[in-house]
Amino acid sequence: MQAFVSSEPHRTITTRLDHYCDEATFVDWEQDSPDVPGWQTNWRHLTADGKAAELTQPSAANQTRDFPPPVEAPGHRQLTAGTAAACRAGASGPACPVPCSGEVAA
């Protein structure tokens, strides 16, 4: 995760959050698996333990973390460390749960 946070475009976009967002919340947690956590897991951590970013025009939900749960599309598949590696290697179809061109972040 540290590699992602300190790389582009994440590094630059975080300096412009106030320009693009009225909600921005951050949270850290430890997990046993190297797999990318699912949307529901992320949402639970953000709403329970998230730290709201300081924004000039935040929404009311930004301070209270009263965000609606994510809605996943039918047929959504979790991106795991193994499927991310397959995507980086240029896999497509069932090996890769998202349309990819080999540009999935490590």
Give a structural overview.
It is a single chain. With 106 residues, the protein is mainly alpha-helical. It has 2 domains: 2-72, no CATH class; 77-106, no CATH class. The protein has helices at 2-5, 10-14, 17-20, 39-49, 60-64, 81-88; strands at 25-26, 51-52. A two-stranded antiparallel ribbon has the order 1-2. The chain is globular. The protein starts with a helix and ends in an 18-residue tail after the last helix. The model is unreliable at 100-106 (pLDDT under 50).
Radius of gyration: 16 Å
Order of helices and strands: HHHEHEHH
Mean pLDDT: 78
Strand order of the largest sheet: 1-2
Give the helix tally. 6
Q: Any low-confidence stretches, pLDDT <50, length ≥5?
A: 100-106
Structural class: mainly alpha
Largest sheet: 2 strands, antiparallel
How many discrete structural domains?
2
Helix content: 25-40%
Distance from first to last alpha carbon:
9 Å
| Count of DSSP strands | 2
Strand content: under 5%
- The general outline is globular
Question: Which SSEs are present, and which pair or pack?
Answer:
Layout: H1 2-5, H2 10-14, H3 17-20, E1 25-26, H4 39-49, E2 51-52, H5 60-64, H6 81-88
Antiparallel strand pairs: 1-2
